[in-house]
Amino acid sequence: MEILRQRILNEGRCLDGGILKVDSFVNHQLDPELMMKIGEEFGQRFAGLNINKIITVEASGIAPALMTGLMMKLPVIFAKKKHPSSMTSGFYQTEVKSFTKQQFYPLIISKEYLKFGENILFIDDFLAHGNAAKGIINLCAQAGASIAGLGFMIEKRFQQGGIWLRDKGYHVESLAIIDSLNDNEITFH
Amino acid sequence: MEILRQRILNEGRCLDGGILKVDSFVNHQLDPELMMKIGEEFGQRFAGLNINKIITVEASGIAPALMTGLMMKLPVIFAKKKHPSSMTSGFYQTEVKSFTKQQFYPLIISKEYLKFGENILFIDDFLAHGNAAKGIINLCAQAGASIAGLGFMIEKRFQQGGIWLRDKGYHVESLAIIDSLNDNEITFH
User: Which of B26, B30, B124 to probe by mutation at the A interface, max A CB count within 10 Å?
Assistant: First the structure.
């Protein structure tokens, strides 16, 4: 997606350890018009797959997932990273390692909103090692729901998560795929 | 806003301690079309105020703020509740008490995205005691930014935050105002 690649080139900053900082339009400040175009793009790429629901992870996944849900006329669930005191009717839970923060956190979805037989589209901001994606695949397996596809704004291909997912046969769509981040030089695939 | 009040009546559940659970369309599952209508409504109510930027708080504020930003053609900042390791260029920080979780958390905005002289619209899902709103007012004061208005999807009037804000002269718009939550009976203002 050319406008996304341009934004990454213009505003992205490479930090140590393979981190791409895009706080100006993804992880702290949001550009609503860009997010709408991202939702349109995901809507086209995942059209016709009989998807029932979109799942994302709080907080940075919410904007692209919401816009994809608007375009595809589907509800959006955001998985929580903490156990909410008001989640009283049972939930699916798994443990995920954060690449950026180098710590483990839980991923939680209420049993009220993820059901047996549902066909799920997972949308997130980044695909690095694929840990959040694997966590959502785990939650869907617990519920007996299937994965129709996984869509990411930015895939860091050198961190292998996308390779793992495609090898397993999942339908993965990444709008900007980065081969390397070296000395503040961003190389797209 | 009648469609929002209807959703609250149909799907909201009253929990102990004055908590209204609206996980099916605000705090866990999202209805993108409803959020777009909410964005349109805030856009109308805050039109013509020369607003530069919308601020919200992760995670449940992101959806209504993003849709308001889309309608008003404004960038959206989500304040963070944890210090991100990649926020390297300075930030404003304050401490806020969560009503639902009964614990303190930090509210953080990078100095890159909140500047002296900017005119800010704060959008959030709930107004209860007003602690998040007071936190954002504090961050804006630190930056020398002004508050053009504060918009909330749901105000729990009996918890006094809205009364405090209006007494201080702030322009507050709440799309559904609840006077009481008793024995699972929701009474609107």
Answer: B30
Residue B35 has which token pair?
A: 């959020």
**CATH code of the domain covering residue B39:** 3.40.50.2020
Number of domains present in the structure of chain A: 1
Asked if B112 and A32 come within 8 Å (Cβ–Cβ), the reply is no
ipTM for the assembly: 0.96
Q: For chain A, 189 residues long, give each residue's pLDDT as a single digit of tens.
A: 999 999 999 999 998 888 999 999 999 999 999 999 999 999 999 999 999 999 999 999 999 999 999 999 999 999 999 887 777 779 999 999 887 777 899 999 999 999 999 999 999 999 999 999 999 999 999 999 999 999 999 999 999 999 999 999 999 999 999 999 987 799 999
Strand pairing category for B185-188 and B172-182: antiparallel
Contact across the interface for A59 and B74, Cβ inside 8 Å: no
Q: What are phi and psi of B29, to 5 degrees?
A: -100, 145
Question: A108: domain range?
Answer: 2-188
Asked if B68 and B39 count as a contact pair (C-beta separation under 8 A), the reply is: yes
Residue spans of beta strands (DSSP E) within chain B? 13-15, 19-21, 29-30, 53-57, 76-79, 91-98, 103-110, 119-127, 146-156, 172-182, 185-188
Chain B contact for A51, CB < 8 A? no
Question: At which residue do the structure tokens 């559904």 appear?
Answer: B176
d(CA A113, CA B97): 29
Contact criterion met (CB below 8 Å) for B189 and B166:
no
Instruction: Determine if the peptide bond prior to B148 is cis (ω within 30°).
Output: no
